[in-house]
Specification:
Layout: E1 3-6, E2 16-22, E3 29-30, E4 35-40, E5 45-49, E6 54-59, E7 68-69, E8 73-78, H1 85-91, H2 126-130, E9 133-136, E10 139-142, H3 145-154, H4 172-179, H5 215-230, E11 233-241, H6 243-255, H7 263-277, E12 283-285, E13 290-292, E14 298-300, E15 302-304, E16 307-309, E17 312-313, H8 321-336, E18 350-354, E19 373-387, E20 390-404, H9 410-425
Parallel strand pairs: 14-18, 18-19
Antiparallel strand pairs: 1-8, 2-4, 2-7, 3-6, 4-5, 6-8, 9-10, 11-20, 12-13, 14-17, 15-16, 19-20
Helix pairs in contact: 3-4, 7-8, 7-9
Length: 432
């Protein structure tokens, strides 16, 4: 029987992918670990490694095909000595999406949680991993560990249970209700469907062109909608005088032709050190606990042609400015060319979004769950200020912190911004 090679889930939120390129052709020998194809996800183009050995018998999905659902068969692998006639026999049965057989695996396992880039914290504990989605007939189903165990013991299919937890998550009460136990909580009523606005009517051809949604744009739309609907945002802003920072930056850049420090490099360093000083803000929300991260992994939003991605500077609180600058340059270049590895944009404990280069004075960014904060950086501009009781002109940068109020209270957010402002305005302290 031929081995099915299925479309892999290369990220926690991936539901479909595109076949960018087949690196093996029909009839080629395939060894375990061989890269057989390049798969385009919503974020990057990634290599797909074979887990079994044999011969590539048939390519079901051709190169360039788009919108292939996760777990859909994309090729057939003949084992050593297997009769090619088996391919014809298999072709009589239409492929059905089902859980992966374990015979073909992606180059890297998916993370346990999802960011827009969809970052999840770098090292989720076993509790969070056990609470992840399960696959039932190709559908991702979210259930608490207790609810999952109860369903298994009772012989109930999770797909038949309607979840009443956050975002449709199945909880204990849902299983009890299905079993008909008295006192089980009734499910929350579903939100009423929102009618789509009618398309505008025109006497002649419509004055627009339709741009189909890319996989990345669909993920961004879904993730940010979920964030604004489920995460209680609050915002606070602070003005930072950056004249001293600009002087030190110019001096450091003049001493090294090979190394160029940007304002954003100082921002990343200051945010990481501020999180070290206010660890309560370096946290994530789960249904069971607040996770306090012991390392500042800073995700930085990078604009792409059809969206954005957030590559991560891991352990930024333990890196110098030169290291941050070099790593950020490399990450941004590979992000724009779609060459980032999964672990380079999945994760992060805090995000920075900088629109200052576009002349934006200030803005409020949307939190990227499961993170609890995102810092929006505006443009540095000359403004009138009062210094020592006298009117003066200073270069001022407005920074706005968006906080998840379930995790970060107002006082904690204020302490974080105060620590960040002190570091930015006295940049020599960042060099210690």
């Amino acid at each position: 029987m031929p081995i099915e090679i299925r479309m892999p889930a290369l990220s926690p939120t991936m539901t479909e992918g595109n076949i960018a390129r087949w690196l093996k052709k029909e009839g080629d020998a395939v060894h375990s670990g061989d890269v057989i194809a390049e798969i385009e996800t919503d974020k990057a183009t990634m290599e797909y490694e074979a887990a079994d050995e044999g011969r590539l018998g048939k390519i079901i999905v051709p190169e360039g095909a788009q919108g292939i659902k996760v777990n859909q068969p994309i090729a057939l692998l003949l084992e050593e000595g297997e009769d090619p006639a088996a391919l014809e026999k298999f072709a009589t049965s239409p492929p059905v999406a089902s859980p992966p057989t374990g015979r073909a695996a992606p180059a890297a396992p998916p993370a346990t949680a999802a960011p827009i880039s969809e970052p999840a914290p770098a090292a989720q504990p076993a509790m969070a991993a056990a609470d992840g989605p399960v696959q039932t007939n190709g559908e991702r189903i979210f259930a608490s560990p207790l609810a999952r165990r109860m369903a298994i013991h009772a012989g109930i299919d999770l797909a038949a249970i309607r979840g009443s937890g956050p975002q449709g998550r199945i909880v204990k009460a849902d299983v009890e209700r299905t079993l008909g136990r008295p006192g089980a909580a009734a499910p929350r009523p579903a939100a009423p469907a929102v009618a789509k606005p009618p398309m505008p009517a025109f006497a002649d051809s419509p004055p627009y062109s339709a741009k189909p949604h890319s996989a990345m744009r669909r993920v961004i739309a879904r993730r940010l909608t979920e964030s604004k609907q489920t995460v209680p945002h609050f915002y606070m802003s602070v003005d930072c005088a950056i004249d001293d920072l600009l002087k030190i930056r110019a001096s450091l850049n003049a001493k090294s032709e090979a190394q160029h420090l940007s304002i954003n490099d100082f921002v990343i360093r200051a945010a990481a050190l501020a999180l070290r000083q206010v660890p309560a803000a370096n946290a994530s929300w789960t249904d069971d606990a607040i996770l306090l991260w012991q390392r500042a992994d800073i995700a930085v939003a990078v604009a792409l042609d059809d969206g954005l991605i957030t590559p991560i500077v891991r352990g930024a609180d333990q890196r110098g400015l030169a290291q941050i600058a070099a790593e950020m340059k490399d990450l941004a270049e590979r992000a724009r060319s779609g060459k980032l590895a999964l672990e380079e944009f999945q994760g992060g404990t805090f995000t920075i979004s900088n629109l200052g280069m576009y002349g934006i004075r200030e803005f409020a960014a949307v939190i990227n769950p499961p993170q609890s904060c995102i810092l929006a950086i505006g443009a540095g501009e000359k403004r009138p200020v009062v210094q020592d009781g006298q009117l003066a002109v200073a270069t001022v940068m407005t920074c706005t912190l968006s906080c998840d109020h379930r995790v970060v209270d107002g006082a904690v957010g204020a302490q974080l911004l105060a620590a960040f402002k002190k570091l930015i305005e006295d940049p020599l302290t960042m060099l210690l």
